[in-house]
Amino acid sequence: MKTVPLTGLHVNLALDGLILATAWLHVALAPYTKVEESFNLHAVHDVLMYGFGKDSLKNHDHNIFPGAVPRTFIGSIFLSWISTPPLQFASHLGLIENKFHIQVIVRITLAALNTLGLCLVRRAVSNRFGRSMGIYYTVLTCSQFHLPFWMGRTVPNMFALFLVNISTYILLNRAPHSRKPSSTQNSLAISILTFAAAVFRGELALYLAPLCLQALLNHSISLPTLLKTGIISGLLSAALTISVDTYFWNAPTPLWPELQGILFNVLQGKSADWGVSPPHTYFTSFLPKLLLSGIPLSLIGMWKDPRIRDPLYPAWSFVGLMSLLGHKEWRFIIYVVPIFNIAGAGGLSFFFAVPKKSRWGPISFLLGTALILVNLAITLFSTFVSTANYPGGAALQQFHSLYNPHTTKSPVHVHISNLAAQTGASLFTQIYSQPQWDGIGDRNVNWVYNKTEGLSLAELTGYSSPFTHLIVEELPPKSVLRRRGWKVVRAVRAYGGVNLRLEVLEESVRSVLKDPSLVYSAFEGLKGVVNVRREEKLWILERIE
Length: 545
Known about the structure:
This protein has helices at residues 8-29, 38-50, 74-92, 99-129, 131-143, 146-150, 156-172, 183-199, 205-217, 223-248, 257-267, 281-291, 294-304, 306-322, 337-352, 361-387, 391-402, 418-422, 457-461, 478-484, 502-514, 519-525, and strands spanning 413-416, 448-450, 469-472, 486-500, 530-543. By secondary structure, the protein is an alpha/beta fold.
């Protein structure tokens, strides 16, 4: 049988497939969502289920839970639109049984969109620095935790991430010995970043500023062209978000959500209510958390190849400028991870390029491999822990395994506690509520899922309470439950912390020192060093007839 030689196309498809498979695997392992994802996720739900006609908007979730500041609907509308073909295809194949399956498909669609951005960056890296650099870039990206885990999650940062990656691709995709991007490349990248900052995440203005300064200093764009590009793209972006979001929020005056967010969080200082971190936090905590071994590798890459430094100057400047703000979250700088990974790929190239027959070849190869293996070990552990950190989603899944319209005769009215609502109990997980999508589910069944906040124990469990079931985060005393006619049906366990059992490690080391032949059994014993603790977080209660 003749073997088919690998071509550049085969390699490209394999690398693209690896990035996509990594992102989709994270969605499959952790399909539930947290509260920070809820606005865009619920907006997608409402657009798919109700549409966005004037009469339909009153049913949308943002009218009930508007949040501290308005957010844009542009990302949610776009995601709903690109999710519709895969939803229809999956429905045709009979793969969608309920609304939760729609949530999974929406999330893998977003993950695929961000995969496209990363694949374009990877191809630009291959074009400019060589195919091996593209391979190392892919391996490094897939071995990290935060970016693959979050690129399918509906926070505004993930919509902005795609646009930042597109701009990075535009600036980077040029000949290996090209000294700078063209004026057209700069104009297009600046326009895209302006749109991302105006519509999705205002902090990107702090990335755009040093990028524009760099373009001016290296004479790759003129000041008049820069001003013209910025003004036109800024006005068009503002006009789009104001027209769309004024309509969706039914605002009496023109509404620019991202501008309101900046005024609220930065100028009024309200972001400090969520905590203030020291200025060094991004450099000493969040970047190492995001990049893992990519930190030392990127420094080596910058030292090895001066061409790598150009995209990193604005990235470093962005992190420095963001450090001036009091409230810090790793999500605010997620956009620079693909850029740092370009330099990290250069670092891996340094280790793997040493000839294997040379004196330092084997050591260099082992060091490079070890750095990737460290990434993978941390990622596997972080993923395992994270999958257990969505008790709200698990509670509703277990609730539906206990009760369904075929076995539960009386109408169900379940109250969902705040913790459950914040940790996975999204609108898509309310599978027996109306409306349903495209014939999925029984339209004659309409369970009520109630998330009213601030209800007392008496209001929840009293005789006049409308609830037939409760998902609670504080278990009432058994005597109270018995007296008021309630019973505990199930406790929902979730992540409760990590225990380090150093005595197990010490015992394993001692046994090997005494008898080296016990190394395998000692290695098996190391599994008990780190223990992920699961605790009861939520309880499902049922009213006794």
